[in-house]
Amino acid sequence: QVRLQESGPGRVKASQTLSLTCTVSGASITTSYYTWSWLRQSPGKGLEWMGTIRYDGRVHVNPSHQTRTSISRDTSEDQFSLQLTSVTPEDTAKYYCAGAKYSGDRGISVPDEQYDYWGRGIQVAVSP
Q1: Rounded-to-integer distance, Cα 71 and Cα 58, Å
Q2: pLDDT tens-digit profile of 85-104?
Q3: Does residue 43 register a pLDDT over 90?
Q4: Cis status of the peptide bond prior to 43, with omega within 30 of 0
Q5: Residue 75 has pLDDT above 90, yes or no
Q6: Dihedral through CA 85, CA 89, CA 91, CA 95, nearest 10?
Q7: Which of 18, 66, 71, 126 has the fewest CB atoms within 10 Å, measured from its CB?
Q8: Residue 107 above 90 pLDDT?
Q9: What's the sign of the alpha-carbon dihedral 24, 28, 55, 99?
Q10: Do residues 94 and 36 make contact, with C-beta atoms less than 8 angstroms apart?
């Protein structure tokens, strides 16, 4: 059974960098054909895709946040991470990591149309 667990600070100050990590168990993040994503939901808003790192290491980031967002991975720990720089109170949200499994490389869509696995989410507050 694949499980995802987010970790990181629950509060950061404006202008700082937010760093979150997702630990995956039950699967290797390098196994074909998984994708691993970060999403967030701000108060009163829908779910927003932040970015994805594929099983092969390729990264896709939401163009709306491209200048501030990076996604990386630690394959030895089966972890992938989100870094969001220069945060503002508008980045206050519940952040989720999610995974999707495809049957082949050609079927992979980014952002994913649906996710097979979800973390429970981590609430992050950005203070002025």
Answers
A1: 10
A2: 999 999 999 999 999 999 98
A3: no
A4: no
A5: yes
A6: 110
A7: 66
A8: no
A9: negative
A10: no
